Amino acid sequence: MNMTPWEIKGKEFGNCNCDYGCPCQFNAPPTYGNCEAVVGFIIDEGYYGDISLDNLTAAMIVWWPGPVHEGNGKMQIIVHENADKAQKSSIEKIFFGEDTEPMTTMWSVYSAMCPTKLQTLTKPISLNIDVEGRTGSISVPDVFETIGKPIKNPITGDEHRARIDIPEGFEFEIAEIGSASTEAKGEIKMSLTNSYGQFASIHLNNNGIVRSTT
To answer: From 83's CA, which of 19, 27, 43, 110 has a CA 20 to 30 Å away?
Structure first.
């Protein structure tokens, strides 16, 4: 299989409708039976073939009527308006799982489980991610707004830190867990309040996660 080589290194912040910890990360059914989520990506370094993806941002909104693996979902990609036509097309191909070994990235999995793919949008995206601090924000005009923060101890108010380590995963090596809320009013609508927030550094290519050597 001839594939255009690609690689992305950066950060992600996502919010789904599950309780903190997200059962899906443990091969268990989602908290409320269905799955809906938004994710923002900061690409610090990246390329698709000879096309640079450095310093670009993108976002994605996804929805499934049941668990992800049962399919029948829909997804929409948003690429920042500062991306040129070639960069937008490259991000779209990666996020749709093209030029990727099947099921080796979260994008490949989500795309395979989403027969309904809405038109990719070009929008201004305001995106901030502090993985270590477990804070983030995503703003896509007329599509969705998301705020992320650390989980707080209900008695003391102190910040609570928890992480997920998945050595054989397809998205990250370690993710910081927080709390997040989303209001989405575009073609895919959702309203999430203080549900699962995920903050992670990501490094992926055609074959999945590029594993750290430390």
So the answer is: 110
